[in-house]
Amino acid sequence: MGRTNIFLYLYFANLPLPKLDEQQKQSLDAPISAAEILSNIKCLSNGKAPGGDGYTTEFFKCFSKEITPLLVILYNDIIQKQFMPQSMRTAIISLLPKPGKDHLDVNNYRPLSLLNNYYKLFAKILAKRL
Q1: Containing domain of residue 28, as a range?
Q2: What is the C-alpha separation between 118 and 113, in angstroms, rounded?
Q3: Is 6 a member of any domain?
Q4: Residue 112: helix, strand or coil by DSSP?
Q5: Which residues are in the Reverse transcriptase domain (predicted)?
Q6: Contact 103, 126 (CB under 8 A)
Q7: In sequence order, which ranges of 1-130 are alpha helices (DSSP H)?
Q8: 64-85 pLDDT, tens per residue?
Q9: CA-CA distance, 9 to 94, in Å (whole number)?
Q10: Residue 122 exposed, middle or buried by CB count within 10 Å (0-12, 13-18, 19+)
Q11: What is the pLDDT of residues 12-40, one digit of tens each?
Q12: What's the number of domains the chain is made of?
């Protein structure tokens, strides 16, 4: 373990971080229902850039009844196996120029990470459970 890693370990080991009780753990690990997915699809923001798969939030909202059964299988498989597919662990990073700044200077760009919407939906469901 490198010097920096030891420092980070010691720093985080001594932080009084909150811990989940058994009921909270079970709530997070509970199977995800179709109703939970449908209600969270409605909360997705429109007009956002899609991830690498090209599916927009508008697509999810329009075809929510058709794709929800597939998402139930996917999300519960992730929870059960504790493994997420590569497409959900991948982001496309684009650099956007800051408005009104010199575009020849690399410091005048900001990164934008594009994530697939079915990953964002899964994260939203887990965040609401927390």
Answers
A1: 21-129
A2: 15
A3: no
A4: strand
A5: 77-130
A6: no
A7: 3-13, 22-29, 34-42, 57-62, 64-81, 117-129
A8: 999 999 999 999 999 999 999 9
A9: 32
A10: buried
A11: 788 888 888 899 888 888 999 999 999 99
A12: 1
